Amino acid sequence: MKLDEVTISKAIVESFSKDFTKALEIEVAIAGAGPAGLTAGFYLAKKGIKVAIFERSLRVGGGMPGGGMMFNKIVVQEAARQVLEEFGIKYIEYQKNYYLANSLEAVSAITYKALQAGAEIFNLIGVEDVMVKDERVCGLVLNWGAVKLANLHVDPLSIRCKTAIDATGHDCEVVKKLEEKGKVKLNTLSGKIMGEGPMWAEKGEAAILENTKEVYPGLYVAGMAANAVCGSPRMGPIFGGMLLSGRKAAELIIERLR
Ligand code: 48F
After folding, report:
1. Residue nearest to atom 12 of ligand 1 (CA)
2. Is the pTM of this model over 0.70?
3. Helix, strand, coil distribution of the chain in percent, nearest 5
4. What is residue 258's predicted lDDT score, i.e. its pLDDT?
5. Does pLDDT of 213 surpass 90?
6. What is the pLDDT of residues 70-120, one digit of tens each?
7. Which of 75, 166, 168 has most ligand 1 atoms within 8 Å of CB, for mutation?
8. Which residues, by range, are in coiled-coil regions (predicted)?
9. Could you please report the per-residue DSSP string of 185-201?
10. 171 pLDDT above the threshold of 90
């Protein structure tokens, strides 16, 4: 059968443009496709909410594929075992309360399920700013990841959303930008970004659900961004908290939107 290069190009450009145009006005926009952002996207899409995830890197998964110091395994505790099962991720019990999974299988399964549920994922597109009107985050400002890498002076494009989630991990980039430019008071103890604490897995995992919340009208935090914004410890390659935090962010937003 004849294959035409231009038809291939047209198929890609037309279909991407259609998907991206739909994402310009969306119910929930998520910054970062690490485990927390992907999990939030899955649970939102499963409830029929229009959700798009913007990931600055070429690949999704954030810190998950790297496991612990490049040993590509992750540990999940009992509290999140049901989420592993929901995603169909295989695991073995290493010891009571320590379940081990392959980090690549975990990322692939969560990504696949999120896409199948209807979440849109745009890789190579980063969030560089927020749109704020009447003291509420009402959109995200996007640019190509490559533009940032190359330090090019290229103006961004904006999307409108009812709610946004900062799931950008340790650097909590969206909240940071909001604080820096909006001079706003955040819903944290100090009213500011409190900064991530040093490693303490148990305390970090215990705090993350409480930290998963709306930190400014229209902007939620999930995953390590939640602990970084609220001043709780990091926890290394245990991932139950990331999955549960993504799920909680989705539940809070579903309750608000529906
Ligand atoms: O860092 P990341 O995996 O965050 P997470 O979902 O999970 C944290 C764990 O990986 C691990 C841990 C477990 O205990 O501590 O570190 O909270 O994923 C964050 C994603 O956001 C992307 C980044 O490339 C990564 O894939 N990202 C960061 N800044 C931006 C962004 C941005 N400004 N716009 C879009 N994506």
Report:
1. 236
2. yes
3. 45, 25, 30
4. 87
5. yes
6. 999 999 999 999 999 999 999 999 999 999 999 999 999 999 999 999 999
7. 168
8. none
9. PPSSSSSS---PBSP-H
10. yes
Interacting residues of 41 by C-beta distance below 8 A, sequence separation 6+: 30, 33, 51, 53, 114, 117, 119, 121, 246, 250
Tell me what the pLDDT averaged over the chain comes to.
Answer: 98
Over residues 112-139, the pLDDT tens digits come to 999 999 999 999 999 999 999 999 999 9
Q: Tokens for 147?
A: 């533009």
Q: Which residue has the tokens 């009812």?
A: 162
Q: What percent of the chain has pLDDT over 70?
A: 100
Average pLDDT over residues 202-231: 98
- What CATH number matches the domain at 23-67+108-257, 3.30.300.130, 3.30.420.10, 3.40.30.10, 3.50.50.60? 3.50.50.60
Q: Whose CA is nearest to atom 4 of ligand 1?
A: 169
CA angle 235, 83, 175 (to 5 degrees): 50
CA distance 225 to 222: 6
Residue 9 C-alpha to ligand 1 middle, in angstroms? 31
Q: In what order do the strands lie in the sheet with 73-76?
A: 73-76, 98-102, 92-95
For the chain, domain boundaries:
23-67+108-257
